[in-house]
Amino acid sequence: MSRKTTRYPVEKTNSLWQLYRTVSFWKVAKVFMVTQLARFTPSFRLKNWLYRTFLRMEIGETTAIALMVMMDVMFPERIKIGRNTIIGYNTTILAHEYLISEYRLGDVIIGDEVMIGANCTILPGVTIGDGAIVAAGTVVHKDVAANTFVAGNPMQVVKDARE
């Protein structure tokens, strides 16, 4: 199961060197400031309001995003988080990848009542189904089925929803 990303080839220099050809400097500056404020905000309501209002993210009701969570700085509007979900401390959610000869963009969709442990990395183009559990420290590099428990790097299914 591969991630759902769109590839954009670049020439001459690596894609990150060409960053401001793909996204506005002012957008990155605004998103960085809002994200940094939200990372340290202890209020879930205020944090969710900042993400919804200034970053155009979809975040469901009663979703709790812990301290130090790092949202994608370039394309946060491509992140959708369902209702009553927990995103653990210091997790990083990416909607982009800048590589040597291309960059990739992909939506990240996190379902309802999902539990994501601390220090996880969620890569672009993945969907995490409703009721899934992602153990602390997991690198989510492919889709996670609803009601499935995954862990590790590389990510492995610990308990399948069909069991």
UniProtKB/TrEMBL annotation:
It holds the Pfam family Hexapep_2. The keyword Isomerase does not apply. GO terms for molecular function: transferase activity. Keywords: Transferase. InterPro entries: Hexapep (IPR001451), Trans_hexapeptide_repeat (IPR050179), Trimer_LpxA-like_sf (IPR011004). This is Transferase hexapeptide (Six repeat-containing protein). It comes from Shouchella lonarensis.
